[in-house]
Amino acid sequence: MYTVHGYDSIREFASATEREVRDLISTIRKTPSIANDASSPKIVLGQSYAIRILYLMYYTRLISKVGRQHTIGPVGQATSTIDNIRTIGRYFERIGDHDESDSPEYRILLEDIDTWLRRTYGQGNVILSDITREHVDPDTNPENGPGFLQPDVENELIRRTSMIDDDFNENNKRVWLMLRAVTHKTDAWSIMKGFARNQNGRQAYISLTAHFEGRGHISRIKTDARNVLERIFWKGSTRNFTFDVFVSRLQGACHDLSEYGDNRTGESKVDTLLTKVAGDTSLSSACTFIRNDSQLSRDFTAAIQYL
Fold first, then answer.
1. Rounded distance between C-alpha atoms, residue 162 and residue 124, angstroms
2. What does the alpha-carbon distance between residue 246 and residue 238 come to, in Å, rounded to a whole number?
3. Which residue, 80, 209, 211, 246, has most beta carbons within 10 Å?
4. Cβ-proximal residues to 227 (8 Å cutoff; 6+ apart), any chain
5. Rounded CA gap, 201 and 179, in Å?
6. Is the pLDDT of residue 63 over 50?
7. Given CA atoms 228, 232, 237, 238 in this order, what sign does their dihedral have?
8. Are 176 and 194 in contact (CB under 8 A)?
9. Contact at 8 Å (CB) between 128 and 171?
């Protein structure tokens, strides 16, 4: 089938598109069942077998992408192999053939870039999270242990997709463009611009995360949060400072501290809240009630709602 219809190797078959495989199936169905006898009946290729050919293409594409070898084992393993082919086929059939035009183009917060990469496909149906994974060589990846297709096809691709082929080069540029979209004309651009010439998305991502998730950045966030807790007070509403704004800043500071290891008890946060609103005499009765209530005095969110 391969040599007659234009595919000389499994690797070449793996590079075929869905349209090309469907054209191949159509050609097979037009082929005489007896070689060199045009009058003989055409080959009968049912839909179930046509789907298997398509799934086989997806299977060869995936094992080529992730550096796996197809091995012929004992007869008992045949069912497992067929199940794998079916699983891979259904995965690629579900996501379809993607290109850059299929991906969303909109500005997002830098904090959301990992989610954006995870749901965006690049050239070769590659999930762009694979470009930013920690380990270049999958065989040195401690997460490589779960085994083939574990826990699913998507994670297999992210964990093991090659970083030395043409698809990687194109998708690396794609990641660069996505990062540029969310950092241009921001403070983060000073880090990004060093990678502009080669449009190296992977290295730009590594530098960004090292900067914004490094110790210095964490220290700055915690310092800013503590400054908010020290300086913010509620004495009544003004034009640009409503109670909602006050609560938002207070909750944000507490959240930042908690996220980076400075965990405060509910009772401590409620005590801070009541201290900060003590200047508003209209809340005195509510504050007294909260302090004397065994539930509200330990529940930060409930205390805010009560006020």
1. 11
2. 11
3. 246
4. none
5. 7
6. yes
7. negative
8. no
9. yes
